[in-house]
Amino acid sequence: MKIKNIALVGNPNCGKTSLFNTLTGTRQKVANYAGVTVERKEGSFKLPSGDAIRVLDLPGTYSLKPSSLDEEVTRAVCLGELKGEILPDIFICVVDATNLSLHLSLVLEVRALNRPMILVLNMMDEVKKRGISIDKDKWSQLLGIPVVEAVAVKTKGIQDLINQLDQKNLFITPYHSELSHFEQVKQITKQVILNNDSGDKRTAFLDKIFLHPVLGLVILTLTMFVMFQAVFIWATPFIEFIENFVAWLSDFIGPLIQHPLLKSLVVDGVIAGAGSVLAYMPQILILFFFILMLEESGYLPRAAFLLDKLMSKAGLSGRSFIPLLSSFACAIPGIMATRSISSERDRLATIMIAPLMTCSARLPVYALLIAAFIPNQLIYGWLSLQGLVLSGLYMSGIVSALLVSVFLKLVRKDKTESIFIFELPTYRIPDIRNIALGLYDRATIFLKRVGGIIVALSILLWVLVTFPQPPDNASMPAINYSLAGQLGHLIHPIFA
After folding, report:
1. The domain containing residue 92 runs over which residues?
2. Using H for helix, E for strand and C for coil, what is the string for 234-247?
């Protein structure tokens, strides 16, 4: 059985990941490329002929001339220069058919590599809604490659793509042009787009609302308020269920283990550690549910664009918005998301302040301290004092982050000005299948990369509070004789 290696290439927001999800389903592996923090998504499926296909979903890029770490990885894979990666047998270049003039430049760069290639004209449903006519055969003739029309989120055109991949020899003609990319784009679009009179009136109308300097900020503030309220309100019953389940599991397994130390290790170390990991999941998944919904709908890039001017005053750019928003669930995925920021200064500043966002792991600590020291009373008859203190703690994290960012802006000046260039995609109804797969990916990443560390630290903490065992005639609690107790006594004078 032959294995073909194919790579999906395309601009951000072209529907490339939707195509990847449609082709591979849940047969995906998410890791990092060797030596970098860029996420590597690989999947697989079988062709009707029985051949296996290994699919690599490359990070979105506007050009093979990289300006960020993501784009450097994409370029290196396309040229076969990335250590540990095989040069793809076939490139599938995915474009947003509603915006061909922007996406065609990357197509021409990939085509110039003279490797087997298939062009996928995605979002053809939007093209037809706008009354645009595209000559697919002319595309194929001009570029010398197969061209497939598709609507990835609705699985339309996928079978045509699979049929092209199932050909024993995907023949392409050598391609070379003396014209500049700009001239090639101009000539090709003129020949393949037969009717382009109708603009996207819906997107233009919605942009007048969502990108309005005043109304847009009000809508964004309300959206963030609803999202964070949902994160904490919706997550509560799930967290309580997990805590009750962990308590039941401990009560069930505990009596089955006779040896007291082994019982304590399993119940207080392993089960308690795993339970603490699972307790983080509801808030993380609910927050990412909203982030994915906003991203799929096309609103999230507009929120970043809207905040760019405000964030630039603190030494950040609009690209920092999404990593910082992710950090409210967990700082780890927030920090990993900074790789898309091209400016080294902005990227470093975002990494430095992301842990200052109030993540879900701090909420139980805040709740415990507030319940212990802040009276449960109402102000003006309707405002909860405890709720105001919690809001103040959240705001203090945001203010601290902005102050640190301003400080970094002053002490670490970038020689080059940070330019925020962002494509605003068409508004679309979110695809539930993509949302579900996105949540599955993030849950898997969190459990693999963070869960193991938390469980290991829980076991280590159990060792510290358990050993050495107290003597038979002990007059103090057992923890006083343990390594943790001795360490506490050692550092006590420092904080006394």
Report:
1. 3-197
2. HHHHHHHHHHHHHH
